[in-house]
UniProtKB/TrEMBL annotation:
Descriptive protein name: Probable alpha-ketoglutarate-dependent hypophosphite dioxygenase
GO molecular function, one term: dioxygenase activity
InterPro entries found in the cross-reference section: Phytyl_CoA_dOase-like
Residues annotated as transmembrane: none
Lineage: superkingdom: Eukaryota
Species the sequence originates in: Geodia barretti
Length: 221
């Protein structure tokens, strides 16, 4: 996987696009951040198919949402050393809205993620408020209006992690992460799961229920 990210894939972007950058980065850095985003890492390495079905991981999910668990998506986010991209405050809900609350995202850490690496920061309890209105559009990835939701205005709790740690959070949990200021990669893979009864909003029951999301990931890469 390291080979794919650092040598073969090699194509970096600045990370998520959008006007949110004006609120999170000094002007000189807004277009200079770096990220590698790979949808479906199991297409490149069979190890990731095993991780998706890992008994320990699935057992934790069952404890959270019940015995039946359906996989939804897998995506790798690599924050490059020095100026690895930040992510604005958001919920994951607008990326893949479903008709229920039992959707859990797991952040599997491939590297240590200390505070300085731009570790995940969350607003505890925020999932209980349900989906919030985000700024959306072709020009941006969904983000919460910075006038109300910004790390300077809302207290968030950092969740530093070690390589191998997994953070579980609801797709309605408000979260963000800062720039990676270390000289090491900060890679993590987000895997989303939900109860099989839940359906994506606005999608025909006959369509695969992660189709729109896979398409969007392709467009974002
Ligand atoms: O990995 C991070 O720092 C945050 C990623 C994120 O916001 C997400 O996966 O929704």
């Amino acid at each position: 996987m390291n080979l794919i990210i650092e040598d073969w894939w090699g194509e970096e972007s600045i990370g998520w696009r959008g006007p949110w950058r004006d609120h999170y980065l000094p002007e000189a850095e807004r277009k200079k951040t770096k990220a590698v985003i790979i949808a479906n890492p199991h297409f490149y390495s069979a190890a990731w198919s095993k991780v998706i079905l890992h008994e320990g991981l699935v057992g934790c999910l069952q404890a959270l949402i019940g015995p039946s668990v359906q996989w939804h998506h897998t995506v790798l986010h690599g924050k490059s050393p020095e100026l690895g991209t930040p992510f604005p405050m958001h919920q994951d809900y607008p990326f893949y809205p479903h008709d229920g609350p039992d959707f859990v995202d797991c952040l599997v850490h491939l590297d240590d993620a200390p505070l300085e690496s731009g570790c995940l920061c969350v607003v505890p309890g925020s999932h209980t408020d349900g989906p919030l209105e985000h700024i959306t559009g072709d020009h941006t990835r969904p983000y919460l209006p910075p006038e109300k939701y910004h790390p300077d205005k809302v207290e968030t709790v950092p969740v530093p992690a070690k390589a191998g740690d997994v953070i579980f959070f609801s797709y309605c949990t408000i979260h963000w992460s800062n720039v990676n200021q270390t000289d090491q990669w900060r890679k993590s893979v987000r895997i989303g799961y939900h109860t099989p009864e839940m359906r994506p909003i606005g999608m025909d029951a006959k369509e695969p229920n992660n189709k729109n999301h896979c398409q969007r990931l392709k467009e974002a890469a």
